[in-house]
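To assess whether ligand presence alters the predicted conformation, the chain was also submitted together with arginine. Input:
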Amino acid sequence: MALWGGRFAEQTQRSVQDFTQSISYDKRLYKHDIAGSMAHAAMLGAAGIIPKESADAICRKLAVLKRRIAEGKMEFKVELEDIHMHIETALTEALGPEGARVHTARSRNDQIALDIRLYLRDEIDDLTKEIRTLQTALVKKADEHKRTVMPGFTHMQHAQPVLLAHHLLAYVEMLARDAERLADARRRINVMPLGSGAIAGTTLPIDREFVRKRLKFPKMTRNSMDAVADRDFACELLAALSIFAMHISRLSEDLILWMSQEFSFITFGDAFCTGSSLMPQKKNPDIAELSRGKTGRIYGDLTALLTICKGLPLTYNRDLQEDKEPLFDAIDTVHAILSVYPAMIDSMKVNKDAMLKAASDPGLMATDLAEALVRKGVPFRFAHHKVGALVKFAADHNKLLNELTLKEMKSVFPEADASMLKLFAPVHAVEGRDVFGATGFKQVASQVAFWKKELRFSS
Ligand code: ARG
């Protein structure tokens, strides 16, 4: 009979056990479940709710169980439903009535709320480190390419020349905000819910402060109903991971395009690509493609959890057991992406000549010409129009902008002078953009230096 079987006359059907179990996936919470039970038992002993000796025996046995589970020696069975009942049953089998005291003044409803918070706290710490590792790989590449000029795109059309370092650092900024979002979600995850019981707290004189301190939570939940019912903190984490994945997906898209034969801007090391079983010539950017693809499932995980929660009356409903698989899936997927992405970036080889050649399209410098007219006092909107007319003139005469003579330029706008003929070098265009946050050499070098300091590395 199950631990909760007192009021039941019949055994649960096997198919129902299979349907209701969560052990197949919540077993990964065993360390956090045990940490929570140790703190809870120690509190029960200290508060005189159970004998001190029982509390000590429970804590000692829990330490043994933790080792046994880590060594793969605990047998998981669907009859025991979830990780909480596996551990409680093992404890009671080993200690008899003493073990049976551990669940005093506790429900699985506040227990699971605690376990998830403990688990997510740890995962966020790991994910944050992994994001830093990716940022470091990107900053190192940026450092190597502080003077590598490439075309920048808007609408997927040549826009203006930029530095490759500037492009890469754009993603470093995005990743920094992703890490901030994780830290922000962590603040709301880091609240201690135990003591809320099933819904309304307990009649026993528990000491929630004791448990809070023991488990290193800065705060505890103020409302027991809220504590067992809500998973907004988990939704927030999934939202933060979705945004991270969106950034990775965009970076992946850039890299995939750059590696195409049409661009030929970059290539990755052989160890980071795979081939085709049919076409012998193929070398594909699979890591980037799969990361772009996996973004879809992370969005799916967020949508799943939001949908699970949206129709639930207060407080705990069994639907909430469905929170775990999307959470675990998103976290595993992000770990998986971050386990390969930094090394792939390290292996990236850049074809500087191809980038410079693409950036040498004189059309990319049309804005610079308009700004040169602004310097001569022409209002920008008129300058824009004049340069537009010049672009048309060049096209009509089958010439590129930098192939026009001064005389031809003057025929379109009389303000033209010889210095304007020299504006068409992409290096010059980059050099000229020297405002904070822009792509100028000095600005980008100082941003690289900023990030090296921020990420604490030198090379
Ligand atoms: N396995 C459950 C979950 O993940 C634990 C809480 C179950 N509570 C209950 N009264 N059945 O949500």
